[in-house]
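This entry is passed on directly below:
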Amino acid sequence: MLENEANPTISKSTGLPRKRFYRARAHSNPLSDSHFPVPISPSHVDFSLHYPQFFSLSCEVGCIKKVQFADIGCGFGGLLVSLSTLFPETLMIGMELRDKVAEYVKERILALRTTNPGQYQNVSVVRTNSMKYIPNYFEKGQLTKMFFLFPDPHFKEKNHRRRVISPHLLDEYAYVLEVGGIIYTITDVEELGEWMKTCLDNHPMFEALTEEELQADPAVKLLCTATEEGQKVARNGGQTFQAVYRRIALSL
C-alpha cells in the first residue's frame, strides 16, 4: 500500500495502473519506422520472460508451450484479460504499436498477477508493428486465434494500404494460423466492416463460420464487450459489424 501511495500511476483501491497516465493517440501510422527491438525469427523470441510460470512448469515436464492466441492492436488489454480466465491453459499475447499503451497493458497484467495469485500467468504483451513483423514472432501454423478488434479505419482511399486487414496481409495471417484457426474482426465503421468481410471472402484460404458456430464460440461473445472501444460503442447505442472466418487448407 505504501508503494501505491508513493506511485500516483497506480490506483490505491484496485492496485491497477491508471489509464490517464498512459493515454496516447487513438492510432499510429503502421507504415512509419518505429524504434524497438525486433526478433530475427520466432526462435529468437524468449517467451519465458513473458510467461515465467508456464515455462518453469514446461521445463519440468519437458514440453514447451507456444503462444496460440494473438490480439493484434490490443489497446488497453481488455480482451486479453477476459480471454485469460476463459482459456487459462492457453498462452496469448497482445501486439501493440503505441509505446504508452503497451506499457499500460504490461503493468496491468503484472498487477493482476499480483492481486490474483495463480491467474493471468498465460497473458502478455509486446510492443511491435504487427503489419510488418508477424512472421518474426510466430511459426507456420502456430496460432489458433487472431483478433482484430476496432482497428483504425483509415478512411481516405490513399490510406487503405495501412489497414490491418488486406489481401496481402491475409497471406501472412494464413501462414501463422493453423488449418482450422480463426480470425475475429469487428468494427463500428460499416464501410470498414464490408472491406474486411470482402477481403476475407475473396481469400482462398478463409471461409466464414456458420451462424451455429458463431453462437457456440465463447470468444465471439467478447468481441463487443471486452474492449474499451466496444463498451463505448455499446454505451452510445452504436452498431457493430463482425467478420469471423476459419483458416482452411488451400485447394489444389
